[in-house]
TrEMBL record:
Domain of life: Eukaryota
The name this protein goes by in its record: Uncharacterized protein
UniProt-annotated stretches for the region Disordered: 1-38
Length: 115
């Protein structure tokens, strides 16, 4: 709030004052809104996409699905930081790994980082 006003006590520029945003419950959804065409297939809800007929799918022009997983280097960097912040965080990540390859990657990174 202090950055909103200049030294003369006047607002620094146009615009609304900062305020708390409260999400409506239930969320506002426009049932008549059209899905944006041309997105990768995995950007659409799978159940909804499967409910479309062939003509609707053609109009939607969904592209090939894209890989949304994090690169291994990003995972390694996060683990590296976690291990240096608190070693118990790394063991928690290891316990919550989603599959065996995640466990192997985490364990390998943990061993490489150890002093």
């Amino acid at each position: 709030m202090s950055l909103r006003f200049g030294p003369d006590g006047k607002p620094n520029g146009p615009g609304r004052f900062p305020h708390l945003r409260i999400k409506p419950t239930p969320p506002r959804v426009d049932p008549h809104a059209k899905a944006p065409p041309g997105l990768p297939k995995n950007f659409y809800d799978n159940d909804w996409y499967q409910s479309l007929d062939q003509i609707e799918r053609r109009k939607l022009d969904a592209q090939e699905a894209v890989d949304l997983s994090f690169p291994k280097m990003i995972i390694w960097s996060v683990l590296h930081l976690s291990i240096h912040i608190a070693s118990n965080q790394a063991s928690s990540v290891l316990q919550n790994a989603s599959n065996m390859s995640d466990c192997k990657l985490i364990a390998r990174c943990h061993l490489e980082i150890q002093p």
